[in-house]
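Still learning. Any example?
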Amino acid sequence: MKFLRNLVILPVKFYQKAISPLFPPSCRYYPTCSTYMIQAVEKHGVVLGLLMGSARILRCNPFVRGGHDPVPDHFSLRRNHDK
């Protein structure tokens, strides 16, 4: 299963190193959406992590305030308001 996690994380790390630096910072959250995706996959596994990361990307838009939104300890598609 670690191989599958690494296979999912690899394109996100590629994005962070090769694509993201070409554009101005635009993520409204901390940690960034790409970091959140990696942390969610590492913490909750591939399927749930991808769902959580995708939901986070959909939440990252001009109509939200953003702010601190760490990966929660329990699976959720909503923003983490605990911290």
